């Protein structure tokens, strides 16, 4: 599939007006969603064209983990976004159709429904369009719209699922993307040790993690400028001095603005202890390596963010920050039965 064809198809499906889902919604058959968002999370914007329903989420879960969506039946969404790794991958980069490299480290899908611009460069504006991009990409699923629709129509197990979700058994790419995006919006994590501590459980954090929390949100560690809010990210794009030369890499590929050279989206830090390796290219294997990079101030680059500076952290500081980051792990999320592979 040529890039121009992909862009045309994305444009054909259009952009989405949004409504809000806040708290628990009543079960209303095909119209309702009975799940809930974590306490203290803001409302999630849901496209009006794709209201969240239990039936669509259920169908989306089956589709998310089905390798038959890829041309050679080798790869599913769940192949690169593993529940036990907080829906991230284990390798520096991920691999799709016929073992072709995606050339990027697969990011966590933790709370992905709150991410306004998808992919490391922010080139995809919705979860629905992200699904299309993955299905059509030559190095991911390498499918066409007609081939995908014809293949899934052959499997009788999908007929009741599509009927419950959309009122008929007809398989369309739009319905596939609506269902998978709906499931992805339920990948919600807000019950880590830090959350419990923040809600008043004084025993939830070790003393080391509490020292790390103070560093994280203070000017010494200086993490909070980019990793703040309920999801520990501003969703902005920054050049953090990973390389001295990043010609035509990062956000600049989307904006064509030279000031965006080497800038990538700030990821959530929720469940970050489970999502190694780190950075868009998986260059760092451990949290210690990541913190040491920030402690150094990064490599010189004309577009390096002004916030990047040597921090002067001690070995104890680094250890304490690691302990705090580990406290953002939510095992009730990674072990949630409703988010596991149903096949």
Concise structural overview:
The chain is mostly helical.
Strand content: under 5%
Based on CA inertia axes, which overall geometry fits? globular
CATH architecture verdict of the largest domain: Orthogonal Bundle
- As laid out across the biggest beta sheet, the strand order is 1-2
Briefly, what CATH class of the largest domain? Answer: Mainly Alpha
Tally the structural domains.
2
Mean pLDDT: 92
List low-confidence stretches. Answer: 1-15, 23-30
Structural class: mainly alpha
First-residue to last-residue Cα separation = 29 Å
Multimerization state = single chain
Number of DSSP-assigned strands: 4
Describe it for me?
With about 350 residues, the chain is mainly alpha-helical. The chain folds into two domains: about 5-190, Cytochrome c-like domain (Cytochrome Bc1 Complex, Chain D, domain 2, Orthogonal Bundle); about 195-330, Cytochrome Bc1 Complex, Chain D, domain 2 (Orthogonal Bundle), CATH 1.10.760. About 30% of the residues lie in helices and about 5% in strands. It contains 13 helices and four strands. A two-stranded antiparallel sheet has the order 1-2. A two-stranded antiparallel ribbon has the order 3-4. Helix 1 (about 5-15) packs antiparallel against helix 4 (about 125-135).
């Amino acid at each position: 599939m040529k890039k121009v064809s992909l862009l045309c198809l994305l444009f054909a499906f259009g952009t989405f007006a949004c409504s809000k889902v806040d708290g628990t919604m009543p079960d209303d058959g095909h119209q309702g969603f009975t799940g809930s968002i974590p306490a203290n999370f803001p409302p999630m914007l849901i496209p009006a064209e794709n209201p969240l329903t239990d039936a669509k989420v259920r169908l989306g879960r089956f589709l998310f983990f089905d390798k038959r969506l890829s041309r050679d039946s080798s790869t599913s969404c769940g192949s690169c976004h593993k529940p036990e790794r907080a829906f991230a991958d284990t390798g520096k980069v991920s691999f799709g159709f016929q073992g072709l490299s995606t050339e990027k480290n697969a990011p966590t899908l933790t709370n992905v429904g709150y991410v306004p611009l998808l992919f490391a460069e922010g080139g995809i504006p919705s979860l629905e369009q992200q699904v299309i991009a993955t299905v059509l990409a030559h190095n991911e699923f390498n499918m066409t719209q007609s081939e995908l629709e014809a293949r899934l129509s052959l499997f009788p197990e999908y007929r009741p699922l599509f009927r419950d979700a959309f009122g008929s058994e007809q398989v369309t790419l739009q319905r596939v993307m609506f269902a998978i995006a709906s499931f992805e919006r339920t990948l919600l994590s807000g019950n880590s040790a830090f959350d419990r501590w923040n809600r008043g459980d004084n025993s939830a954090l070790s003393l080391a993690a509490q020292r790390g929390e103070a560093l994280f949100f203070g000017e010494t560690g200086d993490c909070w400028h980019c990793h703040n809010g309920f999801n520990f990210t501003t969703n902005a794009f920054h050049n953090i001095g990973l390389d001295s030369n990043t010609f035509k890499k990062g956000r600049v590929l989307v904006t064509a603005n030279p000031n965006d050279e080497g800038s990538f989206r700030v990821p959530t830090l929720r469940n970050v202890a489970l999502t190694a390796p780190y950075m868009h290219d998986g260059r760092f294997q451990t949290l210690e390596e990541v913190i040491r990079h920030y402690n150094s101030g990064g490599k010189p680059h004309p577009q390096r963010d002004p916030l990047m500076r040597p921090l002067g952290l001690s070995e104890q500081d680094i250890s304490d920050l690691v302990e705090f980051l580990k406290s953002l792990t939510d095992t009730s999320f990674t072990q949630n039965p409703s988010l596991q592979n149903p096949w």
